[in-house]
Amino acid sequence: MANVTDLQTKYSKLAQEYSKLRAQNQVLKKAVVDEQASSLSLKEQLKQRDQSLRKQEQEMDSLSFRNQQLAKRVELLQEELAVSEAKGKKGKSKGDSPSQHGLETQSVFDEDLQKKIEENERLHIQFYEADEQHRRQEAELKSRLQELEKDSEQHQAVVDGLTTKYMDTIERLQSDKARLEVKTQTLEREAKECRMRTEECQQQLRRCQSELNRQVKQSSSVIQEKVPFNDTSEYLAPSHLKARDVAGQALNFIQDLVAALLNFHSYTEQRVHIYPLDSSIEPISPLNQKFSQYLHENAAYVRPLEDSFLQLHQSITEDTVTVLETVVKLKNFADNFSSYTHFLQKILPYQLKSLEEECEAPLCTAALTAKNQELQSDTKKVTSVFEKLQNYINILALPSKLSSTSAVFTQLAACLHSLHDAIKEMSKHYNQKASLEQELPTVTQKLSTTSECLLGSLGSLTSSTGKIATFFSNNLDFFTSSAYSPRGSTVTLNPLQAESMLANKKKAAAYINAIKKPRPQSVPYREALTNRRILTSSTESREGLTQQVQQSQEKIARLEQEKEHWLLEAQLGKVRLEKENQRIADLESQLAAALGGSPNPQAAAASTLAQSHEETEKEQKAAGKETTLCTSLVGMLCTTPTVEHVADEESREQLIKTHYMARVGELTTQLQISDSKAVHFHSECRALAKRLAIAEKSRETLSEEVKLANQNITRLQDELATTKRSYEDQLSMMSDHLCSMNETLSKQREEIDTLKLGSKGNAKKNKGR
C-alpha cells in the first residue's frame, strides 16, 4: 500500500511539473517572439549603418576628388603668382597705377588661396574622423562577435552535458516506472487478499462477540439464580484513592499559597526599609525596625505549613482508611496554622503603625491617607479571617468532639471565600496606592520596583486563595460525605475499627491471590534429600567461612593495635637515643673542660672515670629492681624505674597526644573533604539533571526543526528541478537564436568585406584620375 501511495505522489508531482512546463513553454514562446523582433530591429540597424557607411565612402571619394582639383588649382595659382611676380619686377620702372593693380590682384589671389587651404584642412579632418569611426565600429563588432562565439561554445557545451545527463535520467525514470508498475500490480493483488482477510476476520469477530454475549447472559442468569449472597452495600468504597487525589491537589494549592505569602512578607520588609525613610541614607524609626525584624522571621512560620501538609499527603496511602479520626497529621498542620495566625496577630499593630507613619510623612496627600486607612481595615479583616480559619481547622483536627462535620466544612468553605475577597480588596487598594505614589516627586526607582514586586505577590496570593476556595467548594460533597460507613448509617469509624477492617481486607486479598496462583509441582523424594544435603553442607561451609572471616577481622584489629604500640615504642626509643646522645656530648664537653682546666690531667681523668663508673653502677642497681606499671589516659605501659623516669613518661604522653591529635586532624580533614565531595557531587547531579531536561527539550525542538528543514529541502529540490528544466529550455532556445545570429553575422561580414573591396577599388580609380 505504501508503494501505491508513493506512485500516486510521484504521478501527482509529474502532473505538477507538466503544468509548470506548459506555463514555462508559453513564457519561452513569448521570449522567442521578442528575440525575433529584436533580431529584425538589429538587421534594420545594420542596414542603416551600411547605408551611412556607403554615404560616408562616397563623400570621402568626392572629397578626395575635390582635394585633388584644389591641389591642381593651387599649383596653377602658384605658377601664376610666380609669373606675376616676375612681371612686377620688370614693370617697376613703370608708373604707380600698374603696380597698384598688381597688388590688388595679388591680394585677391592670396585670399582665395587661404580659403582653399582652410577648406582642404577641414576636409582632411572630416576624412580622418570618418576613418577612425569606421575602424572603431569594426573593432567593436569583431570583439562582440568573438564574445558571442565564446558564449555560444559554452552554451553548446552546457547543452550537450545537460542532454546527456537528462537522457540518462529519462532512461532511469522509465526503468523505475516499469518496476513501479510491476510493484503496483503486486500490491493491488496483496490489497485484494488483505480485504478478503479483513472480511473473514470481521465475520469471526462478530461470531466471537455473539458467543461472548451469550456466555455473559448465561453466567449472569446463573449468578442471579444460584448465588445466595451479593454484597452491594458498598461498605468499602475506594474513597482512599479520591482522598489521596484531593490531598495532592490541595498540596499544590498550599505550595502556591506559601510561596505567595513568603514573597508578600519579604517585599513588605524591603518596603519598610525604603519608605517613608530610606535606611541607606538615614536610620528608620524603632517601630519599623521591630516590624522588619518580625517580618524577617516569616519563613519560620510559613514554611512549616507546606511541610506539615506534605506529611499529611504522604500519610494517605492505599493501606490506610482516610477519615478525620485516622488522619493524625492534620493536628500538626493545625498547630502550624495556629502559629502562623499568632504571627499575623503579632505583626498586625506594627503594620497599622507603619501605615500611620506613612500618613504622617510630609508629602503624603489626602488620597494617600485615605488609601492607607483602607489598607488598615483590609489587614484587620485578613487577620480576622485567618483567625476564623484557625478555629475551624482546630475543630477538624479534634473530630471526637464533633457531632456533625458537614457544618464545619461548609463554614470553612465560606471562610475561604471571604479570605479571597478580603485579599482581593487589599490588592485593589494597594494598586491604587502605588499609582498615587508614582505621582509623588520624591519617588525612587527602588521604591517603584519594590511596589511592583509587592503588587505581583498580592496578585499571586489572590489567585492562590481563589483556587483554594473554588477547589474546596467543588469537593465539599466529598468532605461532608461518610466515606467508610454502610448506607444509611451515621456511625463513624474509630482507629481500631479501621485497623481491623484493613487487616481483614489484606487477608481477603491474600486469600484471593493464593487461590489464583497455580500450585507448584511436587519434588521427588531423592531429589529433595540431595537438595537438603547440599543445603546443609552449604550452610555449614557458610558458617565456617563466617567464623574464619570474624577471626581474620579480629586478628587484623589486634595487629593494628600492635602496630600502633610498636610505632609509639619506636618514637620513644628515638627520643631516648637523642637524650643519650645529648648526655654523652655533655659528658665529653665536661671531660674536655676538666682536662684543659686541671693541672693534673691524669687525676681529672681518673675522677671523671670514677664518676662514670659510679653512675653505671647506680643504673645497674636501678635496673635490678622490679618493673612498675605506668597508667595514663591512653593505656598501660610496663616500665623500669630509672633516674629519667619522669621525663620519659612526660615525653611519652606528649608524643602520644601529638600522634593522636595528628590522627584526629587527618580524619577531620578526610571527613571535610568527603563532605565537600558529596555536596559537589550532589550539585553536579542536580545540574546534570537540569541539563538533561534542557537537552531533551532542545532535542525535541531540533527534531521539529529537522523535520521542517527536510520539508523545505524537498520543496527546494522540486523547485530546483523545475528551474533546471526551464533553464534548459531557455538555453536550447538561446542556442538556436545564437546559431541564427551567427549566420546573420557571417553574411554581414561577407557584405562588409565586399564593400571594403569595392571602396578600395574606388579609391584606386580616384587616385588614377
UniProtKB/TrEMBL annotation:
<keyword id="KW-0694">RNA-binding</keyword>
<dbReference type="Pfam" id="PF10205">
    <property type="entry name" value="KLRAQ"/>
</dbReference>
<dbReference type="GO" id="GO:0005769">
    <property type="term" value="C:early endosome"/>
</dbReference>
<dbReference type="InterPro" id="IPR019348">
    <property type="entry name" value="PPP1R21_six_helix"/>
</dbReference>
<dbReference type="InterPro" id="IPR040024">
    <property type="entry name" value="PPP1R21"/>
</dbReference>
<dbReference type="Pfam" id="PF10212">
    <property type="entry name" value="PPP1R21_helical"/>
</dbReference>
<feature type="compositionally biased region" description="Polar residues">
    <location>
        <begin position="96"/>
        <end position="108"/>
    </location>
</feature>
<feature type="region of interest" description="Disordered">
    <location>
        <begin position="595"/>
        <end position="625"/>
    </location>
</feature>
<feature type="compositionally biased region" description="Basic and acidic residues">
    <location>
        <begin position="612"/>
        <end position="624"/>
    </location>
</feature>
<dbReference type="GO" id="GO:0003723">
    <property type="term" value="F:RNA binding"/>
</dbReference>
<keyword id="KW-0967">Endosome</keyword>
<feature type="compositionally biased region" description="Basic and acidic residues">
    <location>
        <begin position="44"/>
        <end position="58"/>
    </location>
</feature>
<dbReference type="GO" id="GO:0016020">
    <property type="term" value="C:membrane"/>
</dbReference>
<keyword id="KW-0175">Coiled coil</keyword>
<feature type="region of interest" description="Disordered">
    <location>
        <begin position="36"/>
        <end position="64"/>
    </location>
</feature>
<protein>
    <recommendedName>
        <fullName>Protein phosphatase 1 regulatory subunit 21</fullName>
    </recommendedName>
</protein>
<dbReference type="Pfam" id="PF21636">
    <property type="entry name" value="PPP1R21_C"/>
</dbReference>
<feature type="coiled-coil region">
    <location>
        <begin position="131"/>
        <end position="218"/>
    </location>
</feature>
<feature type="domain" description="Protein phosphatase 1 regulatory subunit 21 N-terminal">
    <location>
        <begin position="12"/>
        <end position="113"/>
    </location>
</feature>
<dbReference type="InterPro" id="IPR049372">
    <property type="entry name" value="PPP1R21_C"/>
</dbReference>
<feature type="region of interest" description="Disordered">
    <location>
        <begin position="85"/>
        <end position="108"/>
    </location>
</feature>
<feature type="coiled-coil region">
    <location>
        <begin position="685"/>
        <end position="726"/>
    </location>
</feature>
<dbReference type="InterPro" id="IPR019343">
    <property type="entry name" value="PPP1R21_N"/>
</dbReference>
